[in-house]
Design a protein that fits this description.
Protein name: Recombinase family protein
Organism: Pelosinus baikalensis
Radius of gyration: 34 Å
Shape: elongated
InterPro entries: DNA_bind_recomb_sf, DNA_bind_recombinase_dom, Recombinase_CS, Resolv_N, Resolvase-like_N_sf, SSR_resolvase, Zn_ribbon_recom_dom
Helix content: 40-55%
Keywords: DNA integration, DNA recombination, DNA-binding
Length: about 500
């Protein structure tokens, strides 16, 4: 008589129930010997979860059953076979069809309706216990996160992990690299590819000691941890097999914010997001026609952005910078808000500004007349008005927070409802704080003045030996020295070949 002995163990099983390999092997051999087995074939899955049917040793056992190689199959306990009831029944059916007899050490299994019912009940209970363990684990993680502690050590570059307090501590050497990456993105207007190239050129080690790649740079620039917050319970991971899983983003209402030491301030982080989006918008694959100043041109009449608009023959279109109010659906029904500024031929303005920057680079004494003035009064007024509205909103939300806390103390609402509402309110207050800081920074920028010496230094850096620049390098140079270009067409001619005239106000970084 040939006996197939199936043994499965995982780390959790060893810790919780003592299902060691040695215990199962010894008990299975003894049971098979008592039944008269003269030969043993052992199938051992060491470290494999019973949640999935795809296990190496189990697959070998099932192949042997298909060839009818065994007389009996001995397993220590039904949940060693599988934790999923459906999987248990599938394998049991395969054993019966092969002509072999299934035997368990810990329980008696009878191939009768009653025995199968009992067997199915044990399988259902095993699956239920598995789900309860998952639920307790998730609840424990949520509780830890709500206490402001990290659920686990994510090994985030830029930090060391304080295990005693479940919190990150800034690693200053790594943090210096992170700040350099943000500076290259914001101040030098570099994209992720150019940043990785620059870091590799300087010999700066990547997080894993190899070369920097684009995806690593992008993860750093978009990681909220560096602005001081990590969101726990943001993702839900579901195993679909032993080596496969799916990851889904939970609804934002379920995210739990955890404060960690910030490596860059809120303004810097959000400026980087703005620059990344700008780089994306300017990527050639996203533009039917690419232009040097696209994204930098603003209407001098109303202060709004100007965007590319094409007209004429589709095979050879003429492109213009056009005030956003004239093309955006947001202004479709607001006739009074539509700007009346004329369109600006894109190719002409691009070359005009490029030539002007070259002239200023070669003649620094001309820079004074193009240096920034006190700022755009229209934009300044809008920002101040928005800040007032944000302040009012913050007061209303803070009042709501006090009301919920009072209701909880008076037992009008339970702790779970109060906690959920307070989490949402805290997120809104954080968003208002971030937006307020960003707007204040923009307001300071509008009223600040860049010195002619700084402008001259920047122009000399980027507009020297440009004859070999690629189109991409020309755009980078533009964005390294200019914040925006305020322009308005002032000639009154409308003939097809007329020469346009503009007022141009260059705003330097």
């Amino acid at each position: 008589m040939i006996a197939a002995l199936y043994i499965r163990v995982s780390t959790t099983d060893q810790a919780e129930k003592g299902y060691s390999l040695e215990t199962q092997l010894s008990e299975n051999r003894q049971k098979a010997s008592e039944l008269g087995a003269t030969a043993f074939v052992e199938f051992i899955d060491d470290g494999y979860s019973g949640e999935y049917i795809d296990r190496p040793a189990l697959t070998q056992l099932r192949d042997g059953l298909e060839r009818r190689e065994f007389d009996i199959v001995v397993i220590y306990d039904p949940d060693r076979l599988a934790r999923n009831l459906a999987h248990q029944l599938i394998i049991t059916d395969e054993i019966e069809k092969s002509g072999a007899k299934l035997l368990f050490v810990s329980v008696t299994f009878e191939a009768s309706p009653e025995g199968k019912l009992f067997y199915s009940m044990r399988g259902a209970i095993s699956a239920y216990e598995k789900e309860k363990i998952k639920e307790r684990t998730t609840r424990g993680k949520k509780g830890k996160a709500r206490q402001g502690k990290l659920v686990n050590n994510g090994r985030c570059f830029g930090y060391d992990y304080d295990k005693a307090n479940s919190m990150y501590i800034i690693n200053e050497d790594q943090a210096a690299i992170i700040r350099q990456i943000f500076d290259l993105c914001i101040k030098d207007k570099m994209g992720t590819a150019l940043i990785s190239k620059e870091l590799n050129r300087e010999g700066i080690p990547a997080p894993r000691g190899n070369r920097w790649i684009v995806s690593s740079i992008h993860r750093i620039l978009t990681n909220t941890a560096y602005r001081g917050v990590i969101y726990s319970m943001k993702y839900k991971s579901t195993k679909t097999g032993f080596n496969t899983r799916t990851i889904e983003t939970r609804p934002e209402s379920e995210w739990i914010p955890i404060k960690v030491p910030a490596i860059v301030d809120e303004i810097t982080w959000h400026s980087a997001q703005k620059q990344l989006q700008s780089n994306k918008d300017l990527a050639k694959r996203n533009l039917k026609n690419d232009y040097l100043l696209n994204g930098l041109v603003c209407c001098a009449r109303c202060g709004r952005k100007m965007t590319i608009k094409h007209s004429g023959n589709s095979n050879n279109p003429v492109s213009y910078y056009t005030c956003l109010t004239q093309v955006s659906t947001s202004y479709m029904y607001l006739e009074n808000d539509k700007c009346t500024a004329r369109r600006i031929p894109a190719v002409i303005l691009d070359e005009l500004v490029w030539d002007k920057l070259h002239e200023l680079a070669e003649n620094p004494e001309l820079i004074d007349q193009y240096a920034q003035d006190i700022g755009n009064p229209i934009a300044t007024a809008k920002i101040k008005n928005t800040l007032v509205k944000l302040k009012d909103t913050e007061k209303k939300i803070s009042t709501q927070k006090e009301t919920i806390m009072r209701w909880f103390r008076q037992q009008i609402i339970n702790g779970s409802d109060a906690e959920k509402q307070l989490d949402e309110i805290n997120k809104q207050l954080i968003d208002i704080e971030v937006t307020t800081k960003r707007l204040n920074d923009e307001l300071n920028f509008l009223t600040s003045q860049t010195s002619p010496a700084d402008i001259a230094m920047n122009l000399n850096k980027y507009f020297k030996d440009t004859q070999y620049y690629s189109e991409e390098e020309r755009k980078i140079a533009m964005r390294a020295v200019l914040d925006k270009v305020n322009v308005e067409r002032i000639d009154t001619t409308y003939a097809k070949n007329s020469k346009p005239e503009f007022t141009i106000d260059l705003k330097f970084l």
